Amino acid sequence: MNRIFSGVQPTGNLHLGNYLGAIRNWVRLQRDFECIFCIVDMHAITVWQDPKELRAHTREVAAGMLAAGVDPQANIVFNQSQVPAHAELAWIFNCVARLGWLNRMTQFKEKAGKHRENASVGLYAYPNLMAADILAYKATHVPVGEDQKQHLELTRDVAQKFNNDFGVDFFPLVEPLIFGAATRVMSLRDGTKKMSKSDESDYSRINMTDDADTIALKVRKARTDPEPLPDTVEDLDKRPEASNLVGIYAALRDLDKVEALRQVAGRNFADFKKDLTDVAVSVLGPINDEMQRLLEDPGHVDAVLAEGARRARAIAEPIMRDVYDIVGFLQATER
Ligand code: TYM
To answer: Is 273 a catalytic residue?
Structure first.
């Protein structure tokens, strides 16, 4: 059986990278698979979060997912901290994963930066919690953007080592699902840096909450180069900013880069940016409107998350009972 799990951190607004790299793909997959989508608030606190803002961002991200078309009846949508299995399994994985594996994680190195000694232990163990998220449901497939690939390799290593250590064939080896024309959306200010919630400049990203004027302004200010757009992908990919903007255009129009270039080759940026703005506003505008509508009723959003958490617990609890039994934890029959 195929089961899909994926997650997003409530550390700020959702941005175009989250949408094109992940959430839009979730909406496509939910038709054909059993899907579990999680707002990973426990991952968020690996770096400091103001409690009030964390609560607000959790609701905002949930509203963004629903507004983008994630169906909470057909799928499970919840926030991580409402399901204890994530923390329970993460602890076991802390004892399975090796220090050497975590030392190789590039995302930890990037996030901890020069102040490694000051990073939280949670930030270091982050990938083990991510493995627990997925494997607490024995999920088989994980739709993500390219930046999560290394974490999913670690998830496979953890699953394999657990199975070997205990002589069981228990956890599946997950497959990443990375698809679409924008698996790595880059910053609008620097085509070599990933678009990210943590970038200091708001001009580096298009947020799902940006209105039409803000989107137009950000696209207009986006860094470019002086040449008109080329007609081959090979030439395009030598130009990071051009490649990023055409990639975004292609993804928003649901084209691949070759088809997109057929439409825009030879044009200058001033011209192309108008079309890019139009398509971005036409895709994101309705999502933004729906998101605002949902946020007017936070009680509804909370109820969706509570119901999702109830259903998630029902899947994870029997799996955790088996895990505890495999590990050798003595348990009363009723947990
Ligand atoms: P997060 O919150 O950084 O991002 C959520 C999803 O958006 C994708 N993404 C991007 N895709 C393309 N271009 C970008 N610039 C871009 N920025 C973000 C991410 O790849 C991701 O799919 N560790 C995860 C959250 C997580 C998770 C999980 C994911 C926790 N547990 C279990 C999958 C399965 C993260 O920080 O994503």
So the answer is: no
